[in-house]
Amino acid sequence: MEQVAKYLFLCSLTNLTIYFISTKRQVLCLKKNMNKTFEKFIATKVLLPG
């Protein structure tokens, strides 16, 4: 989980809002739109090592 935390921090540095951590070693970072709702189609997948 420490690796996940590091990647979540990277997501926050890139102005992305952390929304979901999948079970397949990847972190989904989603941007918020003007209505503060999440748009899944602009998600960025960050693959975790290992």
Short note summarizing the structure:
By secondary structure, the protein is of the alpha+beta class. It is built from 1 helix and 3 strands.
Structural account:
- There is one protein chain.
- By secondary structure, the chain is α+β, with helices and mostly antiparallel strands.
- It has one domain.
- The chain is built from one helix and three strands.
- A three-stranded antiparallel β-sheet has the order 1-2-3, with helices on one face.
- The chain is globular and about 35 Å long.
- It starts with a helix and ends with a strand.
- About 12% of the residues have low confidence.
Provide tags for this entry:
3-stranded antiparallel sheet, 3 strands, globular, 50 residues, alpha+beta
Q: Ranges with pLDDT <50 over ≥5 residues? A: 38-43
- SSE pattern, N- to C-terminal: HEEE
Report the count of strand segments. Answer: 3
Radius of gyration: 11 Å
Q: What is the 3D form?
A: globular
The averaged pLDDT comes out at 54
